[in-house]
Specification:
The chain is of the alpha/beta class. The chain contains 18 helices and 17 strands. Helix 8 crosses helix 10 and helix 8 packs across helix 14.
């Protein structure tokens, strides 16, 4: 690594020669304000708030996109710079609604924070707020273009990280705005509802569709039995809203909080993650050993990836595992197996899922397969952010709650179930069980390190008693293309597939950084949440899905065996080609 010596406000510092002024300033504890910059994205100097001076030059430069030059001294704060930055913020505010008190980002808005930092108490410019309607066409997201500050983060995420291209800049000059191509509604665009636009938007222009009132209605209805499940990634992120460290495991507190909020039964999606592995792992083994299906098998747990595949890679449908996501499996067994055990009519059960993902709101109604029980298997999805708001509204001191346990018979889980929340986790969990199914032996080391980590595409292999099983993992939709093209090329040439099993997750890092998780997610936060997930796995007495006693019992008492007729009816689905632009 080639380094250079520079100065920040006269303080010497040695940094990599390709470092930006913004990053160099951070190394000496100097924070330069910015709105358009995010560590996940390439800097492109849109907002102009991060201007700094170069000693000896009359010009100001934008620190986020300007690389350091050896020997130069960068002045980051002085009266003129502060005045310029304040004016930029005031200009942005002159085109922004003043409805902070009822905004979804109130208290977590980066623009609001800057206005407070610069002590802005009035706007010295004419207010010119665009008169554009809200787009509430999707089941997952709300797009309010009147609040858009045109920082471009959402479009960058959608195009660079996700390769979806649902959002872009339209028109020019005063008419410039961000919207789906051709000005169509979000639900008519290629949008996969992953919510990464909302996670990266610094203001309230894009946010999850709030459905917390539906929970309240269910609690107030005395005839309703409210059954709730929580996803793996929620347990290492929810605590952030209450001052806990990212990655701190709060599973027992979540169970407790949900009961205080009115839940009648509290289950864990991790149980259904184990169930997914039994189905998906058996399916994989049959494809490998009996030729029942095409290889490689591709995971189907992520609804944003499923939507993306149906739109961009419909020729890959035969490769997809037919296993539903854990959330939908949990919903199906809640309204059948649990309903029968508890002697409750399925029509009286209101099934709620607490998820890190906005696409899950879409998934519950994606097609008729989501009604395997005869009614909606999952009635409502709330994101981690929505649950945090409900807990605060109820006056619950979350950080000091006593830990509680999940309810039976669909609440117990293995360590394999919990690692579903991270990139590579589904693959690792599947390998643990598939190895047992093929060899009738337990893996000597259940940690499959080849599929761990934050590389966009990871590949490795596992020795199944002399047979090499090749696996690959991708996270972030933009990283999928190389794998899909590799599969197509081998298929077109009539060659052996390059892999046996592929896992894809739409969001960088996996579900721990889903579109419904607490705001401010960057790689340092992702790594802490991932560490929390693996800690939960390591602390588990049972670490493989096939060893979960409640999984053994549900097959013995109800499902029969993996891929049985009943299992197919409740736990499996189908896919279809979908147009990029809906009509």
């Amino acid at each position: 690594m080639e380094t250079v010596e520079i100065k920040i406000n006269g303080q010497p510092v040695e940094v990599d020669k390709d470092t930006t002024i913004l990053k160099a300033a951070k190394t000496v504890g100097v924070k330069i304000p910015s709105l358009c910059t995010h560590s996940d994205l390439e800097p492109w100097a849109a907002c102009g708030i991060c201007v700094v001076k170069v000693e000896g030059s009359p010009k100001m430069v934008r620190a986020c996109a300007t690389k350091v030059v050896a020997g130069q001294n960068y002045i980051t704060h002085d009266p003129e710079i502060q005045k310029t930055r304040k004016t930029v913020v005031e200009l942005i505010l002159s085109n922004h609604p003043k409805d902070c008190l009822i905004c979804a980002r109130n208290g977590t808005c980066e623009l609001q924070e800057l206005a407070a930092d610069f002590s802005i108490r009035e706007i010295p410019f004419h207010m010119d707020i665009p008169d554009l309607p809200k787009d509430e066409s999707t089941a997952s997201l709300v797009f309010d273009p009147s609040k858009c500050i045109q920082c471009g983060r959402c479009a960058q995420v959608c195009q660079q990280l996700q390769d979806v291209w649902a959002l872009e800049f339209l028109h020019r000059g005063h008419e410039t705005r961000i919207a789906p191509a051709a000005g169509v509604l979000l639900n008519e665009s290629p949008c996969i509802k992953c919510g990464q636009c909302s996670a990266h938007c610094p203001v309230g222009a894009i946010h999850e569709k709030d459905q917390t009132s539906e929970w309240c209605n269910a609690v107030e209805d005395e005839s309703t039995h409210l059954a709730v499940q929580i996803a793996p990634a929620v347990r290492v992120a929810l605590g952030e809203a209450f001052g806990m460290e990212p990655g701190e495991i709060s599973t027992g507190k979540i169970y407790s909080a949900l009961r205080r909020l009115g839940a009648d039964a509290v289950f864990d999606t991790n149980f259904a993650a184990d169930l997914t592995i039994m189905e998906e792992g058996t399916e994989l083994v049959q494809r490998i050993t009996k030729g029942r299906g095409i290889l490689p098998q591709i995971t189907s747990c992520c609804p944003a990836w499923t939507d993306y595949m149906e739109k961009y890679y419909p020729d890959m449908i035969p490769h997809f595992s037919t296993a539903k996501s854990p959330m939908m499996m949990q919903g199906a067994v809640t309204k059948t197996y649990y309903a029968e055990k508890a002697k409750i009519k399925k029509e009286n059960i209101f099934s709620v899922a607490i998820m890190p993902c906005t696409a899950k709101k879409y998934e519950i109604g994606r097609d008729d397969n989501m009604q395997a029980s005869g009614v909606n298997d999952v009635d409502l999805v709330l994101t981690t952010r929505e649950l945090a708001r409900m807990i605060k509204t109820a006056g619950i001191d979350f950080a000091n709650l006593q830990d509680e346990d999940a309810d039976s018979p669909i609440g117990d889980y293995s360590g394999a179930g919990t690692i579903f929340g991270v990139t590579g986790g589904v693959m690792e969990a599947a390998v643990r069980t598939a190895y047992k199914l093929v060899t009738d032996k337990d893996l000597a080391d259940v940690n499959v390190n080849d599929v761990r980590g934050m590389e966009g595409v990871k590949a490795g292999s596992v020795d199944f008693a002399g047979k090499e099983i090749k696996v690959a993992v991708a996270h972030g939709m933009a990283n999928v293309k190389s794998l899909m093209e590799e599969i197509r090329a081998a298929r077109d040439k009539g060659e052996e597939p390059p892999y046996h099993f592929i896992e894809v997750m739409a969001c960088r890092g996996g579900c721990i950084a889903g579109g419904g998780q607490p705001y401010g997610t960057e790689d340092n936060i992702r790594e802490k949440r991932i560490a929390g997930i693996y800690k939960d796995d390591e602390n588990s007495v049972v670490r493989s899905s096939y060893e979960n006693p409640e999984i053994i019992k549900i097959y013995k008492d109800y499902l029969g065996e993996p891929l049985s007729e009943k299992a197919h009816q409740l736990l499996h689905t189908t896919y279809q080609k979908r147009p990029l632009y809906q009509k």
